[in-house]
Amino acid sequence: MYKAFIRPIFFLFDPEKIHHFTFSLIRFLNKLPFVPALFKKLYWVEDQRLEKQLFGLTFKNPVGLAAGFDKDAKLYSELGNLGFGFIEIGTLTPKGQPGNPKKRLFRLKADNAIINRMGFNNGGVDEAVARLKQNKNVLIGGNIGKNKVTPNEAATNDYVYCFNALFDYVDYFVVNVSSPNTPNLRALQDKEPLTELLQTLKDLNAKKPEQKPILLKIAPDLTNDQLMDIIDIVHTTKIDGVIATNTTISRDGLQSENKTEAGGLSGKPLTNRSTEVIRFLAEQSNKAFPIIGVGGIHSAADALEKLDAGADLVQLYTGFIYEGPKLIKSINKAILNRL
Q1: Of 3.40.630.30, 3.40.50.1110, 3.20.20.70, 1.20.1260.10, which CATH number belongs to 2-337?
Q2: Where are the beta strands (DSSP E) in the chain?
Q3: pLDDT by residue (tens digit) across 27-63?
């Protein structure tokens, strides 16, 4: 129904406007007494064999929603009704910021892809915390970044602020230094500044009564040498895992007219590269740390390929927009069918 009727209508409108409309629609529907139960009946796959123990956490199933969809933690409970095993909110920054000028979100229909240059638009971490205080049973990841106006030499302070603010309200953290839409942010992926940032957060985490897992989200555009640096950094700082991958700045093989728009590309063109990165990290590290695989998952086969490459969990974003919530159910069923 989604692909046949709903998506064609949604795709007639501006992507960012329809995103906000969809949020309002999902929120409204979930206020109707029977709808949450209906969504769960339609999309949830309840089976203990899908549970995954990772980072000391129990994931009800290995299919999550990637950061960027529910930036401000406004809809995590309702989205959880669609079958996700976990929801990652953010990227959040210390202060609210409007992000980059519109238009900044583009569909590439011929490529089953999206280009975004949102620029960490969010209301600030403290607003998100107020909403997260209402959370009852959704496993939440907190994706954190720096404000646009914060220079890289002061970036650690922004990450520390978000870490402290979110600590009691998320189950794990994701350090985002790989978005292409904040000027110079990706320079923080260099070995020295990244090691310093992650070590600071690890030391801060160690002082807490109960530690939270810390993961690093990396770009798909890193070279093999840079990926070896990532492996070394994970070993040195002893962070808990890696999310591979964020959006790409590559435009290879695209067919759509708006393929030259600036920003990060997500969706089907990223499928192979993100899997390559997952496989490289898993093989070269001898599977020394957990990996969450994200990038171009538009089918159950795509998800299984990432799991086979070395991912422990997977996340959806663009595939969820193009394929709808049935994709979550089909992935979980495919996993069960292989057991």
Answers
A1: 3.20.20.70
A2: 52-54, 57-59, 63-65, 86-92, 105-108, 113-116, 140-144, 172-176, 214-218, 241-244, 264-267, 291-294, 313-316
A3: 999 999 999 999 999 999 999 999 999 999 999 999 9
- Is this structure's pTM higher than 0.90? yes
Query: For 106-141, what is each residue's pLDDT tens digit?
Result: 999 999 999 999 999 999 999 999 999 999 999 999
Candidates 331, 335, 320, 330; CA nearest to 112 is 320
| Binding-site positions for substrate | 71, 116-120, 176, 181, 246-247
To the query of whether residue 179 is one of the catalytic residues in this protein, the response is yes
Backbone angles phi, psi at 6, to 5 degrees: -75, -50
Beta strand spans in 9-56 (E):
52-54
Options 178, 179, 256, 274, the catalytic residue: 179
